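For reproducibility, we list the full input for the pyridoxal-5'-phosphate complex.
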Amino acid sequence: MSSSKSNNAAASEKCLSLDNINPQFIELEYAVRGPLVIRAGQIEKELQQGVKKPFDQVIRANIGDCHAMGQKPITFLRQLLALTMDTTLFDSPDYPEDVKKRARIILDGCQGQSVGSYTDSAGIEVIRRQVADFIAKRDGAPCNYEDIYLTGGASPGIKSILSLVRAKVNGKRPGVMVPIPQYPLYSATISEYAMNRVGYYLNEDKNWSLEIPELERAFNESRKTTEPRALVVINPGNPTGQVLTRENIVDVIKFAHKHKLLLLADEVYQANIYAPNSKFYSFKSVAYEMGSPYREMELCSFMSTSKGYLGECGIRGGYMEVINMCPQVKAMLTKSITASLCSTTAGQVAVSALVYPPEKGEPSYEQYIAEKAAVLDALKERAELVYKTFNSFEGFKVNVVQGAMYAFPQIIIPPKAIAAAKAKNMAPDTFYAFELLESTGICIVSGSGFGQREGTYHFRTTILPQTDQLKIMLDKFQTFHAEFMKKYK
Amino acid sequence: MSSSKSNNAAASEKCLSLDNINPQFIELEYAVRGPLVIRAGQIEKELQQGVKKPFDQVIRANIGDCHAMGQKPITFLRQLLALTMDTTLFDSPDYPEDVKKRARIILDGCQGQSVGSYTDSAGIEVIRRQVADFIAKRDGAPCNYEDIYLTGGASPGIKSILSLVRAKVNGKRPGVMVPIPQYPLYSATISEYAMNRVGYYLNEDKNWSLEIPELERAFNESRKTTEPRALVVINPGNPTGQVLTRENIVDVIKFAHKHKLLLLADEVYQANIYAPNSKFYSFKSVAYEMGSPYREMELCSFMSTSKGYLGECGIRGGYMEVINMCPQVKAMLTKSITASLCSTTAGQVAVSALVYPPEKGEPSYEQYIAEKAAVLDALKERAELVYKTFNSFEGFKVNVVQGAMYAFPQIIIPPKAIAAAKAKNMAPDTFYAFELLESTGICIVSGSGFGQREGTYHFRTTILPQTDQLKIMLDKFQTFHAEFMKKYK
Ligand SMILES: Cc1ncc(COP(=O)(O)O)c(C=O)c1O
Ligand SMILES: Cc1ncc(COP(=O)(O)O)c(C=O)c1O
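The corresponding predicted structure, in tokenized form, follows.
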């Protein structure tokens, strides 16, 4: 008792304690880096220290981190980065002329011709123009570079738009509609900003399709306590791997228009489409083709260099396109970004590499195309492999991985395992994931981190381990699962 | 009237309008990139389009953006960046072995040995350890790498700590004590987070010294409406250029301890000391030497690659050291950062270059030392030049630039000019700054952007234009000022 007293005394010496800090920090959760991942890190250290385990390495299938899993960077992008960093390389014969040309254009767009200068808050103008050209070409619709903001990965762009809608309306907390399951950046940010999350379920039985009656249900039920302001759609989906059809996007746009919801289209996986019948449609292009009044709707879409075939997560490159926003509101958005000065120039250069790659006839073209295809082909192969393998597991229900970088299988967890989980004060799927980690070294994220229908259990795995690694992983997984089922059935 | 009606109709079609977005976005101001700077950008475009002006270029003395003003990057840092980006350069004989060694250490610390992987949210461990070694050596006091967070410039670190203390206490809004004048990131963030700014005046008559009675006054007066939680000290000062004495720091630490304020020490200019009698003391080292209970106080300090002799603003590198924080609170801080994944690896590499430079005997050492000295010597020369020149202007009151990168002179603005400003609905110092910009192309920031005593007028200029440029600038400034005084006296 005296020790607890002196503990309290020590704690009361501190300026900050759990009961007087920002309560939203306590509320927020980000499962992709939660307790399972922390434990995986500990296990890695234990292995290094020579602790004996039934495996010799941790396989990090928890996070969409391409290079960490052995994906090779695209040479063109890395050369462009190196040239803008060390300009003596302009004299090197090892760097192709088309890359030099592009590096020169970027440096000419920097104050003092150095990537060491702060850029405009929205990014280097010439790169914003390159993005606008890329989007215009992709969509067959006009794109104004002034609608483009370069961001350090997609995350800060998403956060600044969510922060913009963070205002009580009619005394009610603002609500943000997000899919269930969702990418946890959304739930974490909504918590951090003290907004209300309005979840709408994706239909697992129809390959995670997004259905309008469910959107209406979620919207209407939330109205008592919340003023819904924004609708988040992730397409292709994380963690679900679904790709929306064009008809579906039309319906979603009509829904958002009807209810005056700001549409946030998270399209970071737009280059990751694997299913033969799936195709990526941008919300921008569909709204444009629908004509008035949809063409004039406010729409924010997000893109990243972390995904696709670049997989440059650590560099932190991304952009958002913000269209049809009231100019005064847009000025406020811009102002809010200026205080943080600018996003990293390395990320901005990576965005340039994404949207303005080598063109046919240029010296880097063939290698660029070959490297890009190699990455995308391997992802496609692995998307199919993961689907097929999990589909053969007892008690697994798994949808085709149409796009993105994940599978999100449902597991029927036997009652005895549910009881064992309860005894450990764990959600059943978290229990499953911990058992898997401790006995195989495979790190996945349990479904509760993304959201799932009550009483169902899932996990998310990436499809990123290199194919030979992935095969080993799936073998181990299969053995583990069979034993788990035997033990708890 | 019908047009205003249809305007309203159009506006009401929008999801977002000024009256339903985050009100804090409307409140916040960031003068370093405010209307003067926007006008400077327009003038640059006008000059490009051939519009005739009494000058042929804009001199951007508004922002501490070193490379933009012609400062050269440090070769060692850029080589380190290029090597980590394009690993084929390891085969190049043009890259010295000590740089290769350092690049190898960093890559070995990255998942998949690629800077394209996400890092731990707090940054690459090996670089955090390098930072800890650097601080320990600087301070002669222990430093634990687990207290180090790598951040994208100092700004995001500052914002996350301010966000942490953002909790109402006893029903009162949290208050943050900041100097007047201050660096506007603080006022902007305090607005954005709906906290209260508690300003304490620096004493202009004593070279912007920080005085305890004034801290007490500000603290006590704020208590009616506010719960002060944190105290920000900028040392060396921006915009003031003052360097605190050790005695002064001792007193500030005692004050913070007495009132249980979280100390935020913004020490990004620690390498920028020019006055012969000035020396940089870190808050950490002073608190450590003071012994208990000060040694156990919570303290956050911030550092950046944007300032000092690197001047790498665009790369976005920085770190914060957070000591003595309650472990549970620190866990919440870490958690809040994880959702944004990580800071850019390019910035992390730049931090490594800052804290682990070439050592005596290594191949890059001589060049590194020479380049570093060249930058610092030039800054010192310009600090003196700016002080001496402004000191000779009629109606100017200017303090010695002891450190950092700015001068913040007071101008006695004649009543006629004040009237002219009023007629234009402008603050008198903003009026002065606009007149200067339009007639000379020199872009400075008026004192109101930083805060100043009522009835006094200031502006901030950087000392960053290269010395020949700076001389031209000061000449033009002198002519302008003489004419301004003639016109309005
Ligand atoms: C759907 C989705 N949106 C956004 C992001 C953010 O990634 P980044 O900030 O690296 O661009 C991710 C990352 O996994 C994601 O899956
Ligand atoms: C006092 C002070 N703190 C922090 C910063 C933030 O700079 P950065 O985010 O580039 O590190 C600045 C930039 O000018 C500054 O002057």
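The mean pLDDT of chain A is 93. Residues 365-391 of chain A form the longest helix (27 residues). Both points were considered when choosing residues for closer inspection.
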